[in-house]
Amino acid sequence: MSGQPHIFDSRERVFGIGLPKTGQTSLLFLMMKLGFDAKGRQRHLSRAFYAGRYEEILSYYDKHDFFIDHPTCLMYKLAFERYGRSAKYILTLRSSPQLWFESLKRHNRYARPIGHKHYKWFGRYYPHGFDEEHIRYYEQHSAEVQRFFEEKSALDRLLIISVDEPDSFKDLIAFLGIETDLEGYPHENRSDRRKPTLSNRFRRRYNDIVQPLYERCAPRLFPGTPEQQLPPTPTSR
What we know:
alpha/beta
């Protein structure tokens, strides 16, 4: 039941492998409430991922129960090689790719003007003006995850859910094999609920001016597909 740690086999880890803005934060908070030793985005792991230090990330996975956000969503192949069928994997989606893209754009209203993490991931400072490119990345990630687990004959270890769908919570609880008196996800990290701090007000004001200009000009100035972060394969370690 909620409020009490569940009985959890420490050998069976759970990985959230959906892209950002697919309900990752809500899932993270839910897993915490369920008693998992749950970890979200860790900056030192992102730095290790960009530097290709994958073993450092895998060693971190040995120490906790549940992992989500960058770089975990791109580490599923290496995680499966390490844990195989002793782990479970959750691919979170939105009800449509367009809904995901619009959520990504809203989130970017509060992007940092300098050192924006979006650039390292997608190769663009903002998603604005690059609709098809981002939606293609989203769809390819979903397809590649499903193809990978099918090839490994491990689709039973993969749960695909959309947090927008009412039944997804019940599917998740059944997949985890636990009991709880919770009735749904805790909805966190919504863009319209950000605290009105001076920093947030500045970022939104700045982006409200810059992003429309970027949307009009960037596709013409920077055509072609940029370098994007992709899941490393076991042979790349």
